[in-house]
Amino acid sequence: MTIPANRLQTMANAIRVLSMDAVQAANSGHPGMPMGMADVATVLFGKFLKFDPAQPRWPDRDRFILSAGHGSMLIYSLLHLTGYERPTIEDIKAFRQLHSVCAGHPENTELPGVECTTGPLGQGLAMGVGFAMAERHLNGVFGEELVDHKTFVIAGDGCLMEGINHEAIGLAGHLKLGRLIVLWDDNRITIDGDTSVSTSEDVAARYAATGWHTVACDGHDFADIERAIAEAVADPRPSLVACRTIIGKGAPNKQGGHSVHGAPLGGAEIEAARGELGWTLPPFELPEQVVADWRAVGARGTAEAAAWGERLVAAPQGAEFSRRMAGELPDMAEVEATFNGWLEGDKKVATRKASEMALDVLTAAIPEMIGGSADLTGSNLTVTKSTTPFSPEDYSGRYVSYGIREFGMAAAMNGMALHGGVLPYGGTFLVFSDYCRNAIRMSALQQAKVVYVLTHDSIGLGEDGPTHQPIEHIMSMRMIPNLEVFRPADVIETAECWQLAVANEGRPSVLALTRQNLPQLRHAGPNQSALGAYRLVAAQAARKVVIVATGSEVEIAVAVRSALESQGIGVDVVSAPSLSRFFAQDSAYKADILPAGVLKVSIEAGTTFGWEAITGLDGLRFGIDTFGASAPADQLYDYFGLTAAKITPQIVAALQTN
Ligand SMILES: Cc1ncc(C[n+]2csc(CCOP(=O)(O)OP(=O)(O)O)c2C)c(N)n1
Ligand SMILES: [Mg+2]
Are 412 and 440 in contact (CB under 8 A)? Predict the structure, then answer.
């Protein structure tokens, strides 16, 4: 399909006008980026992108990621113009208003066609790496017939300047992800003004140094844009296309300056822009020819999508491919039987080791699981017999050596999960969750099923000292909405929590795991962790105390209970592997576990902040509200007062004063 250049220009101008009018109507938003990149986006969608607006989730579509999420009107315009069901023109009129699918920044949960939520600069591109990894993996497993698509990213100066960019492109270059193509909006403007105020970097040289192909073009010359993208598509390396653009192009008095970045153009400038662009129609009305031309672009993929559908039906692995893409787990009966077999044993292992044992079983049963670690495989214990290396030589492998790139790893896992067909998990030390915290937050916001294996979860890691000992981390991650934080207490809870994590639809999970060995406390099923918190040991004497503990501190709680019971004080021990799950139980269950009129005590080797929700203000909270220290683990537990010998008398004293 060849559209004459003048018609292409009008198609691009439709993006410009829709964007400036929507921002003006909302009195909020970012017209500069969409107006500047309208020409590039028109060529990309018009000539290269494989998609079918009638089947937004067609598995073999090219993925398009607007990493410069502030330019959200660009993607809303494109989806509308090419004929997606949503956004309608009414949706666009409601840009940035409550419940509009045209949210301030593009949200994957709002609109099919928005592959991932963007706005935190740099992460869209880094998720693009994950999308490209998932594509190569599924291609390796299912072959060219079913999986053969590209990932296109539009990124701005900010996306390239962020630190995560270094991690992401290093990983992509190393993995030779040649189907990843980044279109850089090289407009040399950011919010504070010209990029020269803050950077002197030779971006192309940096990309070249990490194994990328780079090419430049005039981002307002259709033929030149097409030439550059074609070159990028042809090159076997991941590609950076530097598109020289003018921010806000089409606004005659404001274009090229930072004032168009993030503010409405204003009535007078919009009128001037209409003159400049030769646009006579009022806001939110589009010329028939433009609509027809854009719909023709949208129809370009129809036949290919249909042919793909036929191949899927014919493919021997078609049903398995569809299962994975739908995110449905395979039959888990054998997994459960194996885990149930552990109940009879008496395994004293670290929960990180228990996690490795569980992963051995799970990765054998769930072929879509792709593991990895940020260079701590031997500590996180994330590799299994089933997870052979994922590499350019064998993309069907299932273990990613992410390198020391926690943020890059987490963002890539988000991209993989959102691509679909894979279930990513990855490890690092819990304390370094801070390095990837915003990507963990984005997992939760995007409802991405990603499992974070965060080991060395307390002072129990010992001699590495306070830099490596998490204090506030577990509780602060519990505050992230839609993230489930598990802290299992033994081998059984670890297996249970893993089962819950892989079944957690639309939600990421954290598994906080110990370095040190823990005794097996549970010898009976069924999955008690599914309740969030449950009575592990019930009081024998008249109940005066309920101790709620997590992870490695459940063992301590059990010892405290024994000491108190021997003094005639009845104590329940409640293990609480998932507080959010417990809080979601009905009030009768919660009242049964935390009855009124007894002293409530919490023990967790981290901040005590937040435990008031369990203990009330008159309960006792044992934890650590300073940084840790460097020493063997048992000495640290004693030093920080987290032993039965130190906790028991404080509970006795509290009972006496009450
Ligand atoms: C991680 C992060 N930091 C800061 C911001 C706020 N912010 C939004 S856009 C922007 C400037 C980006 O410049 P550029 O990518 O060149 O976009 P342009 O002005 O060219 O549209 C900033 C700092 C953000 N969205 N994400
Ligand atoms: Mg810029």
Answer: no
Place of tokens 């599924």: 138
What residues are annotated to the active site? 406
Q: What is the pLDDT of residue 623?
A: 98
- Spatial CA neighbour of 241 closest among 15, 44, 34, 31: 44
Q: From the alpha carbon of 156, which atom of ligand 1 is closest?
A: 15
Any residues with Cβ below 6 Å from ligand 1, and which? 32-33, 68, 70, 119-121, 156-159, 162, 185, 187, 189-191, 247, 261
| Residues in the chain, overall count | 658
What is the 8-class DSSP label of residue 390?
Answer: P
- CA–CA gap between residue 214 and residue 242 (Å, rounded): 7
**Tens digits of per-residue pLDDT, 3-59?**
888 899 999 999 999 999 999 999 999 999 999 999 999 999 999 999 999 999 999
> Cα-atom radius of gyration of the chain, to the nearest Å?
28
Which ligand is nearest the CA of 30, by number?
Answer: 1
Closest CA to 102 of 140, 71, 146, 136: 71
From the CA of 186, how far away is ligand 2's center (Å)? 6
CA 430 – CA 40 distance, rounded (Å):
42
Task: Report the C-alpha gap between 125 and 129 in whole angstroms.
Answer: 7
Please tell me the distance from the alpha carbon of residue 97 to that of residue 273, in angstroms, as a whole number. 25
**Spatial distance between the Cα atoms of 43 and 32, rounded to a whole number of angstroms:** 18
Q: Name the closest ligand to CA 188.
A: 2
DSSP structure class, residue 282: P
- Other residues' Cβ atoms within 10 Å of the Cβ of residue 638: 14
Determine if residue 400 is left, alpha or beta; phi over 0 gives left, psi from -120 to 50 gives alpha, anything else beta: beta
CA separation, residue 103 to residues 108, 111, 167, 576 (Å): 10, 10, 29, 37
- Which parts of the chain sit beneath pLDDT 50? none
282 upstream amide cis, omega within 30 of 0:
no
Residue 391 DSSP code: B
Give the other-Cβ count within 10 Å of 142's Cβ. 22
Tell me how many helices (H) and strands (E) the chain has.
Answer: 26, 20
Q: Copy the structure tokens of residue 658.
A: 């009450």
Question: How far apart, in Å, are the Cα atoms of 307 and each of 58, 257, 318, 384?
Answer: 12, 47, 14, 38
Minimal CA–CA distance to 69: which of 11, 29, 22?
Answer: 29
pLDDT tens track for 180-210: 999 999 999 999 999 999 999 999 999 999 9
Task: Give CA–CA dist 609/615, Å, rounded.
Answer: 11
List the structure tokens of 220. 């307002």
Atom 9 in ligand 1: which residue has the minimum CA distance?
70
